[in-house]
Amino acid sequence: MTQAASDSEAPASPVSDFHDQHVGHRLKLRRIAIDTYRENVAYLHRECSVYRAEGFQALAKIVVSCNGERIEAVLNVVDDDKIVTPDELGLSEQAFSQLCADEGHDVRVAQAEPPASMDAVRRKIGGERLSYDDYIAITRDIADRRYSKMEMAAFLVATGQNGLDRDEVLLLTKSMLATGNRIDWNEPLVADKHCIGGIPGNRTSMLVVPIVAAHGTLIPKTSSRAITSPAGTADTMEVLARVDLLPETLDKLVRLERGCLVWGGTTSLAPVDDMLISVERPLGIDSQGQMVASILSKKLAAGATHLLLDIPVGPTAKVRHMRDAMQLRKLFEYVGDRLGLYLEVMITDGRQPVGLGIGPVLEVRDVMRVLENDPGAPTDLREKSLRLAGRIIEFDPDVRGGQGYAIAREILESGRALEKMNRIVMAQGVQEQKIELGKLTYEVCAERAGSVTHIDNFFLARIARLAGAPISKGAGVDLLKKLGDKVEQGEALYRIHAEFPSNYDFACDFVRQRTGYELGEFDKIPRGYVEF
Amino acid sequence: MTQAASDSEAPASPVSDFHDQHVGHRLKLRRIAIDTYRENVAYLHRECSVYRAEGFQALAKIVVSCNGERIEAVLNVVDDDKIVTPDELGLSEQAFSQLCADEGHDVRVAQAEPPASMDAVRRKIGGERLSYDDYIAITRDIADRRYSKMEMAAFLVATGQNGLDRDEVLLLTKSMLATGNRIDWNEPLVADKHCIGGIPGNRTSMLVVPIVAAHGTLIPKTSSRAITSPAGTADTMEVLARVDLLPETLDKLVRLERGCLVWGGTTSLAPVDDMLISVERPLGIDSQGQMVASILSKKLAAGATHLLLDIPVGPTAKVRHMRDAMQLRKLFEYVGDRLGLYLEVMITDGRQPVGLGIGPVLEVRDVMRVLENDPGAPTDLREKSLRLAGRIIEFDPDVRGGQGYAIAREILESGRALEKMNRIVMAQGVQEQKIELGKLTYEVCAERAGSVTHIDNFFLARIARLAGAPISKGAGVDLLKKLGDKVEQGEALYRIHAEFPSNYDFACDFVRQRTGYELGEFDKIPRGYVEF
Q1: Phi then psi for B45, rounded to 5 degrees?
Q2: Do A256 and A427 contact (CB within 8 A), yes or no?
Q3: CA nearest A85: which of A65, A103, A59, A112?
């Protein structure tokens, strides 16, 4: 077609081509101020000679190389000289920063081959067991950003559900660990905790870390930001302090205070995990095997030697039945033991949110009330945090089995936990903006009298997100009633907070049909799933 | 963070918000000249009030609505006012044309919910059998572009390999058919042929269509362009004639000439199939069930009542063993019979390319030599085409079983097939550009003497693609020796043609290591897989 038109321009003698080709491949690098998140995108003008000669297809993957660096990117074709000219290659923010070259620099482009390890993924789709070499090849290709979102989705689905036996989970964990950096704290006991999630509120880390650090046990806690939940520990901690610290600062701080509460995303630990999560979450797929590999590789990369895992169980929790929790526990233990991690699992009550607030500012309020020994502090958050902290304190060989809880309580009640939290906040850098609770409020009331017999975790998390959490930190839901509480008709069950009118409206619309609460006879409350 | 800073600007009273919200949501539509292929992309400025208030994440899906139309798009965040300003919403070419609105028009945006049918996909990942309603929901969501590439990949992997039993293949085919348009030719016999692919050259459709149409049987052939192969029938036909016709023109033409050779992509038949293929091919996954659903839904949508399927078998063909070909045949028959399609399968020789040329111009040369009864015409292409055409002619109730081949040969030898081809080319519109064979040539020679015992289809297809085919129509590979031919040392096996130096170089580099031919004793040639 159009290509054929320039046929006559092709040099007659093949001998001279070698040079021409290399000239033809060279383009000037341009940074395109488009944020394509975790996907590299390259922009080529439709009239660009390379595009025309190579027969690239839109959305094909190309290799861009410069100064020995090479990255892969998905190709978008541009028809506007203001975005890129035919002599330029544009790269999205992510791709540009990854290539580490200046604008205007000469770059070369070529069609990218599909990653070689996709062959192993296809074998996995066919039902084969993969080897350690296969997993290493796959995770290395993912880490090098050679996988497109589609290819990652194919890998996740093929290894999802019952796709991985427990030895493969171990191999996948090892290979994820092998393809990232790993911190060595040079101490015999580096404690960590992790909750598999699904319960709104539940901000126990912000209590466990100061208590455990005040005891003297090293607990360098890195947390995620929320992806599908209304707040991650990093989002909540950010109300009080900076959470994006440089590795050097972090190291000094942890040595001094024995603990921190920072965002894990700035480090390059287990990069493959971050990339897989960016596909897994929007797809809403997750399997036990992938969860175990994801959590354990991340914790081991962060240098943990001892880990306490919190698995909440409840009808609207991520894990709904005790038998699933037990199966998950066995899998964690199997993999953890084989990787030299001292691991304990606590199965906890996941029938309702923990604490009263859902959303960063509200959760900070709950946490501070517990730290300040305020009589109005939510008792469930306080109790759960003390139990978790107690178990971690017992990782200390000098603590007698069964004494952890009492030590934790003493640290909290004496004010040492609050003091430690203040020191950590100061060390990380006090949040300078005054972040306040959203002023637009709406109370959701009971349509009949009764006792609260059921609270839907997913539903309440959704309201808080619609209200703007976690990006709008003052947004969220404040629970006024919890399981077992008696409610009069017309009495408020919870209060929605929003900062912005549009969010406010979304959240209020959402609760028009149902409240997420069930009211009934007191004795209809499902029994606790878990006995502490 | 930054959101919280504008907290004080939020109106104090929720009553007035309703209005403000709707103002806040309105943006001006802008067309962004970026081709994102089959994926809708929306561009929002980072400072856009909607982006800030909604807490969208980059790569999240948003809904854009305008005048009752609504589309979904992946969000890219822009930091450059020259691309979009904070008051605008930019849409990539595809998304813009889908929304059917003018630039500057008011549009509204909101966060998109994941497609409801992803729930069924997750059940499929879990190993469940899905119902017709599930498949309808999935295909409808895909047709409405509610699925991201990732979500389509998840669906394909979950239903790939042994993921579909034959009744599910039937349900998937039916639902793909139900979610697109369907042509009704109002004739009792509408013939079609299809080859499952994998064999370079093999341009039989360009011979079968004129022969069958000259007999008087209606054969409105729509073909694809090459995706991973060096030429599709549409790419090759385009050397002679226009292939992108409007539906009205097409209809008139087919009624008049009884046949056509056009590109299927301009029609809206089985749109889901096109979208799934755009994910399946780059992933390199494909399963029998998906192939059958894809082919049969497309053919039925195009109005076929009778279909001849060509399944080539050979060591480097898509189907490598006779037992797999038989299994595939049964599946085609099972689904075809239940959808009222008269279907026959021909298992053919796939041990080597069919014809001599690989690449659009070279394949046209082969086809024209056969049509012109040129003594130098490739006999394998001629024979195979006559056999296929013969079988289709026998769909005609007035033709006695076993007479089709003789009728086809008579049509070819009498020149009526050539005449019909010329009429079809005229009716579709003669290609005005003179498209010539690539002038950069390179001959690949035998390193030893012997008989050709093996030709690697994949390898030769790859060379032709590297040489520039199908976009560079004059590029390709011209086979000088085929299976069984005797070769002297240093004698040329095939000739590479390229139009552009860079392509030429890629292709020549590629053949430095191996030729794709094996030479040996004459009696070592693998026996034909198939007996005609």
Answers
A1: -70, 145
A2: yes
A3: A103
Distance between CA atoms of residues B420 and B261, nearest Å: 12
From first to last of its 532 residues, what are the pLDDT tens digits of chain B? 333 333 333 333 333 333 333 333 579 999 999 988 777 899 999 888 777 666 566 557 888 988 888 888 888 999 999 999 999 999 999 899 888 889 999 998 887 878 899 999 999 988 899 999 999 999 999 988 888 888 999 999 999 877 799 999 999 999 999 988 899 999 999 999 999 988 999 999 999 999 999 999 999 999 888 777 889 999 999 999 999 988 889 999 999 999 999 988 755 677 888 888 878 877 878 788 999 999 999 999 999 999 999 999 999 999 999 999 999 999 999 999 999 999 999 999 999 999 999 999 999 999 999 999 999 999 999 999 999 999 999 999 999 999 999 999 999 999 999 999 999 999 999 999 889 999 999 999 999 999 999 999 999 999 999 998 988 899 999 999 999 999 999 999 999 999 998 889 989 999 998 999 999 886 666 665 554 3
What CATH number is given for A25-111 in this structure? Answer: 2.40.40.20
- Least Cα distance to B278 among A148, A49, A48 occurs for A148
Residues of B in contact with A148 (CB under 8 A): 149, 282
User: How many Å apart are CA B494 and CA B359, to the nearest integer?
Assistant: 13
Six-digit token string for A31: 């940074």
Q: In chain A, whose CA is at the least distance from the CA of B235?
A: A1
Give chain B positions within 8 Å (CB) of A46.
Answer: 35
End-to-end CA distance of chain B, in Å?
74
Q: Which helix (H) or strand (E) holds A297?
A: helix A288-301
Q: Which residue has the tokens 């049987």?
A: B217
For B3, the closest of A5, A126, A471 (CB atoms) is: A471
β pairing state of B486-487 and B517-520: unpaired
pTM: 0.80
The complex scores an ipTM of 0.74
**How far is Cα B431 from Cα B424, in angstroms, rounded to an integer?**
12
Phi, psi at A185, each rounded to 5°:
-85, -5
Ordered alpha helix ranges (H), A106-237: 118-125, 132-143, 149-159, 166-178, 205-215, 233-237
Flag the least confident range among A188-202, A224-238, A354-368, B236-250.
A224-238
CATH of domain A118-178: 1.20.970.10
DSSP A430: B
Q: Which of A431, A471, A509 to probe the B interface (max B CBs under 10 A)?
A: A471
Which 8-state DSSP code applies to residue B450? E
Which one of B87, B251, B286, B485 is the catalytic residue? Answer: B286
Residue-range domain boundaries for chain A = 25-111, 118-178, 191-428, 440-524
CB contact under 8 A, B501 and A10: yes
Out of 3.40.50.2000, 3.40.50.300, 3.40.1030.10, 3.30.750.24, select the CATH number for domain A191-428.
Answer: 3.40.1030.10
Which CATH superfamily includes the segment(s) A440-524?
Answer: Pyrimidine nucleoside phosphorylase-like, C-terminal domain (3.90.1170.30)
Per the CB < 8 A criterion, the answer to whether A118 and B153 are in contact is no
Which architecture characterizes domain B2-111 according to CATH?
Beta Barrel (2.40)
What is the rounded CA–CA span in Å between residue A471 and residue A438?
12
Of the candidates A21, A50, A285, the beta carbon closest to that of B501 is on A21
The answer to whether B355 and B315 have CB atoms below 8 angstroms apart is no
Residues of B in contact with A57 (CB under 8 A): 37
Q: State how far the Cα of B357 lies from the Cα of A306, in Å rounded to an integer.
A: 66
User: Is B167 known to be catalytic?
Assistant: no
* Helix boundaries (H) for B313-443: 322-338, 360-371, 379-393, 404-413, 416-428
Average pLDDT, integer, range A53-64: 70
